[in-house]
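ligand=NAP
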Amino acid sequence: MTEQATQHEQVVIIGSGPAGLTAAIYTGRAALHPLVISGWEPGGQLTTTTDVENYPGFPEGIMGPEMMEKFRLQAERFGTRFLHGAVSKVDFETGPPHRLFLDSGEEITCDTLIITTGSAARWLGLPSEDLYKGWGVSACATCDGAFFKDEHIFVVGGGDSAMEEGTYLTKFGKKVTIVHRRDELRASKIMQERAFNNPKVEFAWNSEVAEIIGKQEGFQKKVTGIRLRDTQTGEINEFDCGAVFIAIGHTPNSEPFRGHLEMDENGYILVEPGSTRTNVAGVFAAGDIVDHVYQQAITASGMGCMAAIDAERFLAAQD
Ligand code: NAP
C-alpha cells in the first residue's frame, strides 16, 4: 500500500472571520496562495449579527453575513482556497514546517500559520439552561429572535452584547427584560442609551438567573418562565417568559493550541507587542483569539492584515 503524501502549504489560516479573511486577502495578493481552514462557523461571529453600522465604507450599514460573504469573495478573487473543517491538534515541536491535524483525520503541514479562531459565546452553566438550549434558550438573537414574536423575552448580561441583543429583540418580543448581576452596566454609553430609550426594554438589576423553567410536550420543549435571584437579598422571583438569551461574553477558541503556545490565564494567545508573532517561529495570531479588549470587526481585520505582512516577511527571511 502506498502512503499518501501529506498536503504542504506555504500559508495556512485557521478561522474565517474578519481577521482570517483579511489575512487571506493580503497573503493572496502577495501570491502566497493561502489555505483557509474555515472552522464550523464559516464567516465567524459576524454571521450571527444583524446590522453592522460601524465598519467604515458602508455608510448605510451592512448585514453581518453579507459583509462576511463580501470578505470571502474578495479573498477568493486573489486565489484563497477554503477547506471546511476544524483543526483539533497541532505539533509545533519540530517545525516549521508545522503540523496540523484536522478532525477529519487529515494532516497538513505549513511554513507559516495564522491563527484567527476567535471566541465563542459563554453560558451560565445551569442545568436548566442546558435542558432548554435550542428550545427557547439561545446565545444568538439574530439566529433565534424571530421565533419569539410577542413573547416576553429575557436577556442576561450587562455589556454591549446584552444591550445590542436586548434592543434587537424588541423587534419581535412584546417586552424585553435585561437581567444584570450588578446595578451598573458595563456596556458603552451609546449602547446603554439605546437600551434605556427603548420603551420595550426594562431592567432587572442586581439579579441573576436561578433557573429557567419550561415544559416538555412529546418531543418538543418550550421555555415558559424564569426564576431570578436578587444578588443582595437572595429573594427569588418568578416571571413568565418565552425565551432567555444569554449575552455574557465569550471564551477564546484556543483549545487545540493549549500547551503549544503562550497564552494568558483566560486562554487568549499572547503575541509580541506591536506584532502578531507568537512565541513559536512562523506561527502568528490575530483577532479575538488575541484581543479581549477591542473585539471589533475592524480591529480583527487590522490584525489580520498585520499577521499577513508578518507571515510574508517571515517567509521572505527564510529564502
Ligand atoms: P462583556 O463586555 O465582557 O460583558 C459581559 C457581561 O456579562 C458583563 O456585564 C458581565 O457582568 C456579565 N456576565 C459575565 N459572566 C456572567 C455570569 N456568569 N452571570 C451573569 N452575568 C455575567 O461582553 P460583551 O457584552 O459580549 O462584549 C464583548 C466586547 O465586544 C466588548 O468590548 C464590547 O464593547 C464589544 N461589543 C461591541 C458591540 C457594538 O459596539 N455594537 C456589540 C457587542 C459587543 P459584569 O459587568 O458584572 O462583569
